[in-house]
Structures are given as structure tokens and as C-alpha cells.
Amino acid sequence: MILSKLKQYRVYFFSLIAPLIVFSLDLGSSYALNQDFMIGDEVLQYERFFRFYQQFFYHFDFSRFIYSFSNGLGLNTFGQTMYYLADPLNLIMLAFPNDLVPVGIIVLSILKVCLMAVAMIWLLRQEYYKLPSFFMIVISAAYALMGWVNFNLENIIWLSGLIYLPILIGFVQRLWYIPTRKDKMLYVLVLCLAIFSNYYIAYMLCLFLILYVLWAKFTYSLHWRQLLNFIFCSIIAVLLCGIFLVPLGFNLVDTRLSVGLAGTSLGNLSVSQVFSQFGALSSNVLHMANGYPQIYVGLFFYLFLPWYFLNTKIDRIERVASAVVFLILVLSCMFLPLAKFWQGMALPLSSTYRFSFLLSFWVLYLAGRGLIKLDSENYFRTKLGLSLVLWLLLLFSTVMSFILPSQKLTFWLILGINFLFGLVYLGLLLKRWYWLALAFCLYELILAGYFCFHTADHTLSQRFYSDFKQEQVSFTKLKRLDHSWYRVNLISPATTMDTVALNINGANLFSSNISASTVSLAKHLGLNNNKNAISPGEGPNIVNSFLGMKYIYSRHDMDGMVSVTDDVYLNPNALPIGFSITTNKKYQHMEPLDNIFSLYNQATPIAASTWWHRLDVDLASNHASVSNSRVTLDKTPGIDLATNDVNNIETKDVKGISLVNSTDKTGWVTLTYNFPLRTKHELVFDSSVFIDESGLEYKPSGVLLYINGKQYRANAEFLGQFQNAISLPNTNQVVVKYKLPKHTSLDLNKVHVYYYDQDIYQQKTKYIQKNGVSLTQKTNLFLKGTFNVGGNNDTLLFTIPFDRGWQLKVDGQPVGMNDFYSDFVTAKLHGKQLIKGVHTFSMVYHLPGLYFGLLSFIVGLLCFYVVVVRSLPNRN
């Protein structure tokens, strides 16, 4: 009995052979060639995410799924959790220790690809039960090894959707004809699992299910009433998932509003560009980088898909409906507006056609329907000569894309070779050599899958991630400049984004991660080019001044690489020093200390110009004067910034400042300044703009900076700007040299020089410490403590990124909160309500949209009971 059962399910075992062969070849060759099997996002993101995932279960602190202070200065983590970590299959990572997380990722990848093949076999056995087992194995192998899977294997969170797709199609078919209670329950359960595993791919699956049901309506002449079960059960599944979809929607809206959506710069594709991707020759890095859809499924497109449409045994209405669905998917891969619709109305920066796996699935699905109509009883022996010819053609078509330099020639060669394949295999079919044809289809899938995944992806790895096997960051020095400032130099070679992180007191203050949450964090700290960054005529970033650090320089190259040479200044009076430099290879989970919360008093203006003063250089008279215009800040509710900060500026004698312009024969323009400033001042040169004869701004090609004859590091990365900061001795002569082209007439338009007074800043810091927040209780979702009111009309400001989920109470009474400069949580405290002295506060974080999600879940449960539980237990 056991043997009969095993024999019955042996087709599932054989469906794993092709994927396991590909993985074995790649793992073996990676080891032999001393290459990393894990590439791309598997290293950049998932290794770190899964270590964080393990912390949830090891410490039983599931509040981090919602909000965490280990994510920057505090951030809503629900969106990231649902996108990256919600898949139930991720639980397998708990079986691997922290040091073996990369091994767990490889095992998880292999498991998901094998489950894809098993899921496809399950669908084929249910719908095409008359199809020979070998045919099913080949189709399932084509599904598990299609081009989309090979090129997106590093994004393992997406693969779960391809496991659920065949299963959902199978259960949808059961809903057409008097479904039982079990049929409805399983469909609702699988759809809920698909949405829960990855809502992004599940959105595409739901759209395809609607398209599939419309196809079935005409193919099987279904009555609209027969589709009601599908409609009701789908709505119930979405309502049940509302408990996390609604809060997720709130989080996505907030993320889009604060960060913005980036789109692709690619254009629409032509018919030849799309159809050429069905060939094995299309599996190369160039096509992936250009955003082409990955739709390779072996020879099924050239062989069995035409057979399906030309087979007169298949009903004409079905073939027309199938062609319409095929055309819709192809057009979606050609035109960006349609592609945008399939991907949540937003185009990604890379892998533009992420839904293209649906087109590959549809080709295989139709190929299976065509194979049913073939006479599968007569088989012929394979011919050795023909086998050798076909083997050489397959090998040639697979590896040629890595040799051909011409992209246009590649397209035509793809079409030509695969057309030849189609003719040869069609001849085999007409001769009823079915086994021979399908055997070579399977061979091509394994061969092309190996070359596609290993050679192409590792070419990508060598192109973008060549430095990953080396230490990412060279932590060169920690130098104390004087009694209050530390300088940390981060020097990173041309490594990839998301490889460098600076942790100060456990808060991730610097990171080049491109995820939405880190972009938001970078916006808070001025680590990218945004509205908070320095602009001509303004002082340094006010937000950084709050944190006791000054942002100097960070640059992302156009090709997505990051080259970092930063000076990060940390004031221990405002923030106790406790930092660590981490990379992807040595990431450690850290919690921030309590005293990152501070109270800022309105009596002492908090505008940056209080301690940063601008000197406007008058080029006509060669002298500088203190500007009467201060740094302009956005007006925000609850904070009055109308105080004229110029009155608080300690005016300096600037008559001794002189400016000398000269251009030598080498093309260097020399600007000389004399500054009679004290030791504890720093200078920042900003907006030294050159204007050519046509009135356009010119960016110097090089900058040299000398102070009292000593050269300092400088940069000219920002268009029309030069900025640097140095500590000045008592007597100073500053020489700035700009590299300009020879025989070019340029005028220096404006020079802004800021000097920084550390004494004034330290006075501010002492006031902040005196009136600071003291925490008595802290979790990820709850804060409790005391603060001191130093004067009337104070403003309570937390260094917590603003989130509408926080609710604040002062002395037990609710207090409305605002966002300061679109960044931090603030609360206006009126003098008539609070007197000077110590007061208590508490902050509770409620996940935005959670109550609406619970309401959706309750409604879904009621509908589930009425529509599913009370339905027929057995098929009549």
C-alpha cells in the first residue's frame, strides 16, 4: 500500500530533478571558481533582514514588527516587516544560527524553487490528468527555471507568489461547479497566505486571477452566477487580510508623502524587443540592466504555443480568448502605463517588468492545453545524429549572448536560432517523436538555466559587487580635535549602496541603504540632497545641529555606487559618544540610549544662525560684512520662529578680511582670505559660483584648500558650490584654488563664508541638558519620563521622526503634537497650562489604521461564516 502511494506521487519527486541539477551545478562551480553563490540583494538586504528577523523570536519582542528604535532614531517598521519578513516560509531561518544565515538563505531559495515545480505539477495533475507524467515534469521544470526566476532569485521574497499562483488557479476552477465547503475554505486560505507572504506580488496575482476568470467565462461558457463564488470568496480573503492591509496602506501613504516615488527612465519597448526575450539568448546582464522583461520559458514559446493556436481540435472561442489574454500581457510588457498598472501604479527603479512571470506562466499553461490534444501513445527512438545537431544548437544559443557585442545582432540571432528550433521540433512532433522533443526541451532548460543563473548573475556580481568579498569600510582614525569634538573619518572604496553604517549610541545615523525607511532617515539627518540640505544663502542643516552633529559631505555616483569620505562631528555635550562602524558582514543589533530626547526652549531661538554666522564677501570692495539675513526655516504649527536672530549675533571685526583674485597659467584661480578669528571657530565656504560669458554657472573641475600654508581636504562635488569646514588657529590666511579651463573668461559671482562659534553652541547644549527629557520607562511602543520647563511658551521637541501613531500626554492630559520641519515630534506647551518645574509625560504608539483593519477582519469573519462555513459540506 505504501509503495502504491509512493508510486502515485512519484511525479512530484521527479519534478524536483531539474531545479536541483541547476542548483548543484551552480553551487559546485561557485565553489570551484571561488565565487560567492549569494549575490545582489541576498547580501545587500536579506542577510541583514533575516538577522533582524531572528531577534524577534529569540527575544520574544514582537513590538519591533510595528515600531523600533533600532531603526535609525525610531521608525515604523510595519511596512518593511510585511514586505520582507511576513512569509511563513521564513520560519526556516530560525533553524540556522546567526553565523549560518547565508546558508539558510541558500536553503530557502532552493526550497522555494522546488515548491514552484511541485505547485505546477499539482495544477497539471488536476486539470491535465490525461497528460503523460513526463510532459508534466518538463512543464514544471520550465516553470521553475524560467528566466524571471533565474534573474530574480536574489529577491527571494517574490518567489513565494509563484508558488501560490498555480494553486490559486487550481482552486479557482473548483469554484465554478458547485464547490464544497472545503473548496471555498482552501481558496480563501491560499489567497490569504499569498497576500500575507508578499502583498506586492499578491497584487499582481489578484489582477491575473480576474483576467483568468474572464478567460474562463468565454472558454467554458460559464454563467455569471457561477462566478459569484469566486467574487465572494476573493472579497472575504481581502477583508480578512484587512487587519494588516489597512495599516500597511496607511504606512505606504506616509512613506510616499515623505520620501516620494522614483520612476524609471526607460521608454516603451518594441515588439521585437519583447518577443526576443523568449529565447535562451536573451538571458544576459545587458537585457536585465536595460529593464527588459524576463520571460524565457525554453522552447515552449516557439514550439508548443504555436501548436496550441494552430490546433483545430481546440475550440476557436477558447483560442481567441487565450490570444486576447496573451496580447494583454505582451502589451503590458511593451508600454509603461500598462506596466505601471500591474505594479501598484508605481514603476520601480530596476526590473521594470516585475509582473512578466505571469506571461511566462500563461505560455506554459497554454502549452499544456495543447499537449493534451496530441496523440501520446506512439513514441520513436531518438536519432544520434539529430541529437548531436540539436545539442550544438542549444549550446550555441545559450552562450552566444556573452560574446556578441552588437545588441541588434543579438536580437536577430535570437529570433533566427529559435525559429530554427521551432521548425526542427515541430518536425519531431509531426513525426510523433514527442519524447525526443520534450527531452531536449528539458535539456535546454537545465543548460540555459545554469548559464543564465550562474554566468549572467555572476557577471552582474562581478560588475557591481566586486568588492564584497573584501572588508567594506576602512575605519582609519578617531581623532579628538579639541575638548568637545570628535572626528570620525569613514573611508569606503567604490562599494555598493547599503554597505556602510555608522551607529552612534545604537542609532543608525549614517547609512546608504536605499530603502524607503532609510531614505526617510537620511532626510532627517541631511544625508542626501533634499530640502534640509545646505543651499546657497543658507546656513548648515538645522536638524543636524539639534542632534549635536554636523553633516559635511556624502555623495552617490550616477551609477548607483557610493563613494564616501565623510567628516562626522559629534558633540558629547549633546549626545554621549558610543559609536560603532558596521558593514553587511558584521552587522550587530543595537539599541539607542535614553538621552536622545531633548527639550528645546523657545526663549533661546533654535534657528541655526544663532551659532552659524554668514559673511557676505563684496567682490567690488574686497571686504566682507555680517549678513543681515538669517537662515530661513519653514513655519510649522506650534513653533514661533519670528525672533530676529541677527540681534543675537556677536559681531566680529571683519575689516581685515581681504579678497585677492588671480589666475595662473595652469588654469588655477586663487582666492585669498584673511580671517582674524579665534581658535574655537570653524569656517565653511559655501556657494563660490563662477559665471561664464553666457551667464551660466560653472562647476570647477578641482579645488585646493590651504590654511596658513597647510593643505586641507576639499571637494567640489556640488554644482556651483564648494564647502568645507576646518578648525582655525589664531591668525589665519585661507587660500582656495579652483581648477578652471584655460582661455576661459569666468567671473566669480558670489562667495558666502560661514564661521562657527563653538562657545555659543556649547551654551545651547548645556541649556538643552538642563531642560532635557529623563526617561523612566522605555519600550518600542511606550515612553514615560519627566522634563523640566525652563520658561513660558516652551516647545517640547523629541528627536523621534514624526509619526501620527504617537500619542502624547503631559501630566495625564492629552497634548496635540505637530511635526517640526516635517521631521520631528513636537508639542507646544502654553505657559498658562504648565508652570516652571518638573512635569511628567507619556507617549504611546498606536499603529495607524489598526482599528479600521480590525473592523475589516471582523466583517470578513462574519462573511466567511455565512458564505463558506454554511455552504455544502460535500459535492452533490
TrEMBL record:
List, alphabetically, the InterPro entries matched.
Answer: Uncharacterised_YfhO
| Organism superkingdom | Bacteria
Q: Which UniProt keywords apply?
A: Membrane, Transmembrane, Transmembrane helix
- The transmembrane residues are 12-33, 100-124, 131-150, 156-176, 188-215, 227-250, 257-275, 295-311, 323-342, 354-372, 384-403, 409-426, 433-451, 849-868
Supply the name of the protein: Bacterial membrane protein YfhO
Q: Pfam families from the xrefs? A: YfhO
Signal peptide feature range: none
